[in-house]
Amino acid sequence: MTLSPRHGVTITAALMAMMGCRANRAALPESHEVSEPATPPEPAALSALVAVPVSGWTGPGGGTFEVARRTSDFDELRYRRIGVRSFALPLRPAARGLAQYPCSSCHQGTRLTGPRDAPAHENIRPEHPVLAQGACPTCHVPGAVDRLLLAAGSSATLDHAYRLCAQCHFAQVNDWAGGGHGKRLVSWGGRRVVLSCTDCHDPHRPGLDPRLPFAGPRIRRAPEAAR
Amino acid sequence: MSDGREMLDKRVGRRTAVGMIAGTVAAASQLLGACSPANLLSEEEREARLLAWEDHLKGQFRLMTPEERTETVRRLERLAKLRQGVDVTIADTAAVPGVVFGYAFNISKCQGFRNCVEACVNENNLDRRAGTQYIRIFEMEDGGGIDLDHADATFQHEVPAAGHFYFGTQCFQCANPPCVEVCPVGATWQEPDGIVVVDYDWCIGCRYCMAACPYWARRFNWGRPEVPEEDINPVQHYLGNRARKKGVVEKCTFCIQRSRSGRLPACVEACPTGARVFGNVLDPHSEIRWVLEHKQVFRLKEDLNTEPRFWYFTD
User: Fold this and answer.
1) The dihedral of CA A11, A14, A18, A19: what is its sign?
2) What is the mean pLDDT of residues B234-250?
3) Is the ipTM beyond the 0.90 threshold?
4) SS3 B46
């Protein structure tokens, strides 16, 4: 007789019952899969999120998901209320938070050419373009700088920056779509709204800066104290 | 006289008896109050003492009827107002059926910033005087493996430090929790959604659970926990972040006051690197399930058969 994992569960449950296991131990579930997953209560903050559906990728289990909009005011994303405090996530400013957004307010009729030749955007440190041997027009549409240039020749808005990043960072974007990379907002169930790549990473300089951590524990564990 | 006989004839259950004693005690303390220095107490302090007495004689949370739960919640809310001057709401929200919480931690992503710790302390009203923290972030050397004996959780320098990686621990809400097994009074148990909780008013402070936990996940209140009035999180749960007292054990509850209302735990919400994944392991559309199905995952001290619901993974 061959034993399937299902038999194993039943046998374990029977053994536990025979041994008179404590009632306060959680009973083994009959099945590990529920046909109709429970719908969790929807937090109020979730309905306030401004997001757009992601095109081209599906979330965990093949479901659809949304990405928070960079082009709208997203202070409600940046500041999360934890306890009585308002915690600022180290997110980049939204596009609207940039002093001169939209870019076309200056870049009218001008075409981006190669590396910058005039003193502009001094705050941008183009480490990533330098490493990748690119320049402004590699990613920004030369004649319409509010949009991002995709390899296929089409373009995407800043809300869909992940489509640009995905052209090289395959593994990361797969993890991001599935839930192993990046941040989901507000809720663990129901509507899935995630941050886009450029909400956390500066595309011109994608690493995180080192900094001092929050205070550590004052009490050491026994092995540490013994040393 | 007939009243007395009826009283004797009536079957007095344990609960009724406790109620009767409570009534007697309350009456006696009022009587005492009338002819002792206690009379000098303010109206509010007298009310607080009476409520504390009544609260002292209640049952264990799991054995309470819905009415008793409502009653004790209202009483504790009133006590918080009288004692701490804060308007709090204490929920007794039950587990959502079909939900078992799971947690995953990405070792490649964590940079040791401890924003999770900061958020946890604020969210869960942890004792500021003792500096209680549920989460530990261990700094480990690259190439040394998961070596807890040579890891440092008390690092205080710019992070991430070169040649090191960071490994976070907290309560793993084990499916086979040894802490629950050893509790002599049934003050700690596992809820249907997998969260291991403590009834702070039933705990006797023996700390067996702390000795039984192989992950150092539980914390003991050596003194009365102190939180500045303006920092108290008023959104509370009976089994979560409500006021604890001296001499009881507490622990991470995956922020039961948040997670049971659909929100992410504070540590997940505050993590600046996205190293923390949380969700319903029974839901095939959840992020946690995707991580479990697509990533190499492992659990800490898996050989102990504690079955933690907390998985580690790498990119």
Assistant:
1) positive
2) 96
3) no
4) helix
Q: Tokens at residue A226, please?
A: 């013994």
Burial B60-89 (b: 16+ CB within 10 A, else e): ebeebeeeebeebbebbbebbebeeebebe
**Cβ contact (<8 Å) for B274 and A181?**
yes
Whether B218 and B203 have beta carbons less than 8 Å apart is answered as no
- In total, the C-beta contacts within 8 angstroms joining chain A to chain B are 214
Which residues of chain A are within 8 Å of residue B131 when distances are taken between CB atoms?
A: 215, 217-219
Task: State the smallest CA–CA distance between residue A37 and chain B in angstroms.
Answer: 5
Taken in order of first residue, the domains within chain B and their CATH numbers are 2-91 (no CATH), 101-313 (3.30.70.20)
pLDDT band at residue B82 using 50, 70 and 90 as cut-offs: very high
What are the C-alpha distances in Å from B161 to residues A72, A161, A211, B165? 36, 30, 10, 8
Contact A179 B277 (CB under 8 A): yes
**Nearest-angstrom CA–CA distance, B178 and B30:** 44
CB contact under 8 Å between B99 and A40, yes or no, is yes
Residue A208 lies in a domain: no
Residues B230 and B84: their CA atoms lie apart, in Å, by 10
pLDDT in tens, B105-128: 999 999 999 999 999 999 999 999
Task: Report the number of distinct structural domains present in chain A.
Answer: 1
Please check whether residue A56 touches B, CB under 8 A: no
Alpha-carbon gap, residue A113 to B38, rounded angstroms: 85
Is A14 part of any domain?
Answer: no
Give the Cα separation of A70 and A161 in Å (integer).
9
B285–A216 C-beta distance less than 8 A? no
Whether A30 maps to a domain, the answer reads: no
Owning domain of residue A85 = 44-109+158-200
Domain membership flag for residue A58: yes
With a CB-CB cutoff of 8 Å, which residues 293-312 of chain B face chain A? 294-295
How far A96 CA sits from the closest chain B CA (Å)? Answer: 22
* Residue A68 CA neighbour count, 13 Å, CB half: 29
B63 has a pLDDT exceeding 50 = yes
Task: Name the residue of chain B whose CA is nearest to A87's CA.
Answer: B270
Q: Report residue B151 as tokens.
A: 């890891």
pLDDT at B10 over 80: no
Residues 110-149 of A with CB under 8 A from B: none
A213/B113 CB distance under 8 A: yes
